[in-house]
């Protein structure tokens, strides 16, 4: 990971170095030293690519890499601090000089350019010496295009599997084993690859073994080969092993095979699979490169009954090999399956076969199983440990430090004597070790989020960019890709590598939220600690208030109450996870500390501070800030000094709406700003966006409080949420767009709202037509005609639009609409008809507070893809339409705030005889017992459980 750190430091000091170099005539030799420093960092990166693959096994290499990382951080500190001093002297304007003079408070008065030069020279000598040490350790320089994966070939194989090894305890695999067996033996005569992919320890190899050992498989196929690929693959060796296992050659023939060229071996393997029915299992294949190196040995796209069964941790490998067909991802075990597997190993494995677990022991076991999060490997490790511990006290000892036992697979005092491979940590660490350096940084950044926290993708990608993990430009196929797209690509790669778990997909099909598996988070925390990557101050963990406990870290996550505090001038990233209502005196102390003591901050997330407070004017001193979020924090005003934050990329000021925040015109100077979120309720003067040419997100802007010319010129906007006091304001914007023939060609998400959406104020639909590539559209106000030309629209939210019955016909012809919210007064007819074939791709439908709606008809083949339906507070609606019975894809129905007659009619008509649909029901006029009774009746009539 040190290679990634050095890259980030080099990229981070580059613009600062350019500014300082421009001042060369004032700064003596300092500018030259900075140029040399950049060159040295570039050279040393090549060595670190190789060193990062070696430090797992060689302590001297690991120590050297750690010293290089710390030296790079020191260099960054010195140069950025020097930049502060230079900037404070060179910027014009009396007021700016006064403000920027305060920045120099991190310097001693006697500090001058010679001392700075001396510090840089000292660090450079240290880096040069450490680089020389790496060369003496036989670390070679790897060029930028060379694969880091090649480094794994020098490592000892840490995990190899064999087909003859029998899994003693299997749970929950019967159904999927049968399904895969049928696919392998009954899928016709086209060559087939079935891929099993998922995170380490999820049971991929166990499932493959179960399939491989089935009698039906043994009877159907003529030849078999089980090959463990792992991370030290060599194409020729793999194909040679496959050939030997398929043909069972004599000793003489083996010698001949060993002398054959790779293309000759590939041809032999290919031929035998065409002539015979062969099953080849490729277990634990890591890279697309590995698959591409051996695929010439398989009759892909040929008519043959030979098959491949493949396991991998990476979805991209599975997709490449299986050509998008026949992929399976093992799911976490449910509570019953977890206990069944646990009991088989921890209890049934005991010598006392008649032993029955007592209530206390079972309670302890169930509590410990929560830490396994349904991961089969974790359960197996935990149960194996407990099988050797028979007393309740011994089980309590394990419970006291259960995460460590699961991760290491051994007693804590014995960990030095036992390989970590016994536990979960060693298996999951293989996935971490395989990450390229920039993805290691992105992954370790997740360690600061609390347990079970759902991480918002948009926010995380903004943070990664602000941290410098994402290059400022990325050229792909000759075009420049936005940093946000590159950052999202990093997230999707972590998903495909089974490092993170998707929580929610958005309407555009992108990942919206995700989380870390508990054990993957433990690994993340472990690695972040080893790399000194970040620190966490959390009173519930007993870490105390002494910042020295977390060392010289660059990033700090605060989970604080009123007893906590922390100061460290080296901190670059500070994410505060508020606890709600807390002591106001503590608020002031922490706020003062943050804005006065963290001079080099790049990232500041200071959210969810509920009590109103004043932001210090010194916020303008944090001139290195790239990201600032005060979301849901009740601050009274935004200081004018925010205009000094010229490197700011993301500014989130959204509040919870209990106070009116005063917002001054501070944005005119923030030319790097990419994402601006304004509060809904605020006291805002006239705002200028004229210089914000990089702006992609503008949320909650009130059109009467900004210059229309500015709004029209923001050509790079991807997300826009406009609020208007009256229709005339939107009409003027529409006229200006039309008169200048302007379109928002990059806009993907648009929200138009008038302050009186339910009083009949009309939204001009021509504004929507000026956004031809919309994925998301939200309208809050009356429209006279819904626009038809929206081919990409995936999500539509309507309030107060007062659509008539015939306008539903326009909505149901939208070709890509997947999510539809019809809210209060969005539809004002008594009858609504979804016609035959309408809404072909709709997956989620919400009908909310449609007060005029009495009858809803769903004709045959309407909404054929519907999965989720929510009906709430449509109190005149008489019944669920009969047509819903024909929708076999429906998985979830929610009824909320509907009258009892609606529910009783649904029961009597026996709608939705669908065994797979789950229901929830809430009626605020009924007490809990009655609601539960109605729910049971509803459920029984539909043959489904709640």
Q: Could you characterize the architecture of this molecule?
A:
Among the domains are: about 140 residues; about 160 residues, Rossmann fold (3-Layer(aba) Sandwich), CATH 3.40.50; about 90 residues, no CATH class; about 100 residues, Arc Repressor Mutant, subunit A (Orthogonal Bundle), CATH 1.10.10. It has about 950 residues and is an alpha/beta fold. The relative contact order is 0.04. The C terminus is likely disordered. Helices cover about 40% and strands about 15% of the residues. Helix 4 packs antiparallel against helix 5 and helix 17 crosses helix 19. The strands form 6 sheets. The chain has a 17-stranded parallel beta sheet, with helices on both faces. It has a 5-stranded parallel beta sheet with strand order 2-3-4-1-5, with helices on both faces. The chain has a 3-stranded antiparallel beta sheet with strand order 6-10-9.
């Amino acid at each position: 990971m040190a290679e990634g750190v050095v890259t980030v430091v080099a990229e981070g000091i580059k613009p600062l170095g350019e500014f300082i170099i421009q001042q060369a005539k004032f700064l003596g030799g300092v500018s030259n030293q900075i140029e040399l420093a950049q060159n040295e960092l570039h050279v040393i990166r090549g060595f670190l690519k190789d060193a990062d693959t070696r430090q797992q096994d060689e302590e001297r290499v690991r120590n050297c890499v750690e010293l290089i990382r710390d030296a790079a951080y020191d260099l960054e500190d010195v140069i950025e601090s020097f930049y502060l001093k230079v900037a404070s002297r060179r910027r014009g304007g009396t007021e700016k000089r006064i403000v920027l003079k305060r920045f120099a408070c991190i310097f001693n008065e006697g500090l001058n350019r010679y001392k700075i030069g001396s510090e840089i020279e000292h660090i450079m000598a240290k880096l040069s010496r450490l680089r020389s040490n790496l060369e003496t350790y036989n670390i070679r320089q790897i060029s930028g295009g060379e694969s880091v994966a090649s480094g794994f070939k020098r490592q000892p194989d840490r995990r190899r599997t064999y087909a003859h090894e029998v899994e003693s305890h299997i749970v929950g695999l019967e159904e999927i084993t049968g399904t895969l067996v049928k696919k392998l033996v009954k899928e016709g005569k086209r060559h087939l690859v079935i891929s099993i992919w998922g995170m380490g320890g999820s049971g991929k190899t166990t499932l493959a073994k179960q399939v491989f050992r089935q009698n039906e498989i043994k009877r159907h196929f003529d030849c078999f080969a089980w090959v463990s690929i792992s991370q030290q693959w060599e194409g020729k060796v793999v194909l040679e092993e496959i050939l030997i296992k398929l043909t069972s050659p004599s000793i003489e023939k083996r010698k001949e095979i060993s002398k054959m060229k790779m293309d000759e071996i590939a041809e032999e393997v290919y031929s035998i699979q065409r002539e015979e029915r062969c099953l080849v299992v490729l277990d634990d294949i890591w890279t697309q490169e590995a698959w591409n190196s051996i695929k010439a040995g398989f009759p892909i796209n040929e008519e043959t009954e030979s098959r491949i069964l493949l396991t991998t941790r990476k979805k991209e490998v599975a997709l490449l090999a299986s050509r998008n067909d026949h992929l399976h991802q093992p799911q976490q075990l449910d509570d019953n399956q977890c206990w069944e597997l646990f009991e088989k190993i921890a209890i049934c494995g005991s010598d006392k076969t008649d032993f029955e677990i007592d209530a206390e022991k079972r309670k302890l076991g169930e509590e410990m199983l929560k830490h396994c999060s349904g991961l089969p490997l974790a359960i197996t490790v935990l149960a194996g440990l407990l099988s050797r511990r028979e007393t309740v006290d011994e089980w309590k000892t394990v419970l006291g430090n259960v995460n460590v036992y699961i991760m290491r697979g051994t007693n804590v005092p014995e960990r030095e004597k036992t390989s970590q491979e016994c536990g979960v940590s060693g298996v999951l660490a293989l996935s971490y070790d395989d990450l390229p350096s920039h993805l290691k940084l992105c992954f370790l950044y997740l360690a600061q989020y609390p347990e079970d926290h759902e991480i918002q993708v948009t926010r995380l990608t903004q943070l990664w960019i602000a941290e410098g993990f994402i290059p400022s430009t990325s050229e792909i196929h000759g075009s420049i890709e936005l940093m946000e797209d590159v950052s999202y690509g990093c997230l999707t790669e972590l998903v495909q590598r089974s490092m993170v778990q998707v929580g929610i997909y958005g309407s555009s099909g992108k990942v919206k939220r995700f989380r870390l598996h508990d054990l993957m988070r433990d690994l993340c925390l472990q690695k972040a600690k080893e790399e000194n990557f970040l620190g966490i101050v959390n009173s519930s963990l007993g870490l105390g208030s002494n910042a020295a406990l977390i060392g010289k870290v660059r990033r700090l996550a605060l989970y604080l109450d009123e007893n906590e505090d922390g100061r460290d001038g080296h901190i670059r990233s500070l994410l505060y996870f508020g606890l709600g209502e807390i002591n106001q005196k503590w608020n002031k102390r922490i706020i003062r500390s943050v804005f006065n003591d963290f001079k080099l901050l790049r990232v500041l997330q200071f959210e969810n501070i509920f009590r109103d407070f004043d932001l210090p004017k010194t916020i303008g001193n944090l001139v290195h800030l790239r990201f600032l979020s005060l979301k849901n924090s009740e601050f009274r005003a935004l200081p004018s000094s925010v205009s000094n934050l010229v490197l700011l990329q993301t500014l989130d000021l959204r509040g919870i709406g209990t106070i009116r925040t005063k917002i001054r015109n501070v944005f005119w100077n923030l030319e790097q700003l990419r994402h601006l979120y304004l509060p809904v309720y605020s006291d805002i003067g006239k705002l200028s966006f004229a210089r914000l040419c990089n702006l992609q997100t503008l949320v909650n802007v009130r059109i009467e409080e900004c210059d229309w010319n500015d709004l029209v010129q923001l050509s790079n906007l991807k997300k826009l949420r406009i609020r208007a006091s009256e229709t005339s304001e939107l009409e003027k914007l529409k006229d200006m767009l039309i008169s200048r023939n302007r379109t928002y060609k990059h806009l993907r998400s648009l929200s138009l709202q008038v302050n009186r959406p339910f009083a009949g104020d009309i939204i001009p639909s021509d504004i929507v037509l000026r956004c031809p590539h919309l994925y998301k559209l939200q309208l809050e106000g009356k429209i006279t005609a819904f626009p038809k030309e929206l081919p990409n629209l995936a999500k539509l939210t309507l309030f107060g639009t007062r659509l008539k019955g015939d306008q539903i016909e326009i909505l149901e012809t939208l070709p890509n609409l997947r999510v539809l919210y019809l809210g209060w007064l969005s539809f004002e007819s008594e009858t609504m008809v979804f016609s035959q074939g309408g809404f072909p791709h709709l997956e989620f439908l919400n009908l909310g507070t449609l007060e005029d709606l009495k009858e809803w008809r769903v004709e045959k083949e309407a909404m054929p893809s519907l999965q989720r339906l929510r009906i709430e507070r449509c109190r005149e609606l008489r019944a669920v339409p009969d047509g819903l019975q024909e929708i076999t894809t429906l998985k979830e129905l929610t009824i909320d705030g509907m009258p009892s007659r609606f529910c009783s009619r649904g029961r009597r008509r026996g709608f939705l005889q669908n065994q797979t649909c789950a229901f929830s029901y809430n009626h605020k006029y009924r007490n809990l017992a009655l609601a539960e009774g109605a729910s049971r009746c509803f459920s029984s009539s539909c043959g489904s459980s709640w």
